[in-house]
Amino acid sequence: MKKISQNVTPLLPTPSQDEGPFYPPTLPPDQDNDLTRMGDGPVAKGVITCISGRVLDPSGHPVQHAVIEIWQCDYQGFYYHPKTMQRRDPTYQGFGTTITDADGRYLFRTIRPVPYDNRAPHIHFKVRGTAFDEFTTQMYIVGELRNDHDFVLNKLRRPEERERLIIPLKPARYEAKALAGRFNIVLGY
């Protein structure tokens, strides 16, 4: 564990959240950082969305070579999970993984999350590394009406904690009709 320098104001850690019931017990055969298609198959339905960011320690230093996994439902609200496998979009990977670079950066290509049941649109994140304990959280979207009533998001009592998990999505700069968002993860070790 790295010590925080005396001259640096520590960054506020990203709040942890539940893994939820839909982490895939068996991972899909395609597990790269592009969830919009299975292998070389057709592009999944939904609005293409690129989520990027950095994984940082409390001092703001990059966490390199961290393994990041994400999982989320398809455009209909179904996960890559045995409970919903028969109804899910077979073109959507639903789970992806990547490794942070030397600057702690990562990138995923996915679809814009959609609401289902009583949940606001969200993406699950899990971060693993050798110098810290496994970390799990969820990312939400600015302006979603269900954010105010999402029971998982609202387990965080302080508004400033919830705000660290809610990001804006804007038109992507390099892809027509796609969205992009930035979600930095500050580990609290």
Give your account of this protein's structure.
- With 189 residues, this protein is mostly beta strands.
- It has one domain: Aromatic compound dioxygenase (Protocatechuate 3,4-Dioxygenase, subunit A, Sandwich).
- The protein is 3% helix and 26% strand.
- It has one helix spanning 159-163, and strands at residues 48-56, 67-71, 95-99, 105-111, 122-128, 135-141, 166-167, 170-171, 179-182, 185-186.
- The strands form two sheets. Strands 1, 4, 8, 9 and 10 form a five-stranded mixed beta sheet that branches. It has a five-stranded mixed beta sheet with strand order 3-2-5-6-7, with no helix packed on it.
- Helix 1 links the parallel strand 6 (135-141) and strand 7.
- The radius of gyration is 16 Å and the shape is globular.
- The mean pLDDT is 93.
Q: What is the ordering of alpha helices and beta strands?
A: EEEEEEHEEEE
The main sheet comes to:
5 strands, mixed
Cα end-to-end separation: 7 Å
Structural class: mainly beta
CATH architecture: Sandwich
Number of strands: 10
- Quaternary assembly: single chain
Helices, by number, come to 1
Name of the CATH superfamily: Aromatic compound dioxygenase
The name CATH uses for the topology is Protocatechuate 3,4-Dioxygenase, subunit A
What's the level 1 CATH class? Mainly Beta
Structural Rg: 16 Å
**Overall 3D form:** globular
The mean pLDDT is 93
